[in-house]
Write a structure and sequence with these properties.
This protein is α/β, with parallel strands linked by helices and about 160 residues long. Helix content is about 40%, strand content about 25%. The strands form 2 sheets. Strands 5-4-3-7-6 form a 5-stranded mixed beta sheet. It has a two-stranded parallel ribbon with strand order 1-2. Helix 1 packs antiparallel against helix 2.
Length: about 160
Amino acid sequence: MAKQYKLTPQRLEQLQEELNYLKTVREREVAEQIKEARSFGDLSENSEYDEAKNEQGKLYSRIAEIEAVLDNYVLIEEQHFDANAVSLGSQVKVKDKETGEEDVYRIVGSQEADPMNGRISEDSPFGKALLGKVVGEDVEVDAPAGLLYYTVMDIQKG
């Protein structure tokens, strides 16, 4: 069975728009680059042609990647989850029990993860540890740096 990708409605729309752009506008641009590079003559020593073909390969690779996601996605619907517990799509405020520092994270599917911007994958050790927790509950995260301890301070949905 193919891997399923969990997507929010917003991410689904972004991927559909990107795929449309790549298949229409970008594909024509790359085809034009190849056509122009061919006009320069001998293809065996034509760096412009090689670069255009590489760009075409990257384009088709990205198209295939997006199509694989769109063929195997599950839409994240908020109403299927316990309103009081951390779930996919939740925004969670946690407090580091060691430093007292508070941070806010959104739990997202792996396709939307961006840890530098507070978007944590539900497949990550931190995301897995947070799932199902409620306000006031302690969380133990088995991270590469060792065990980390947090307390869930607040949960917002949507």
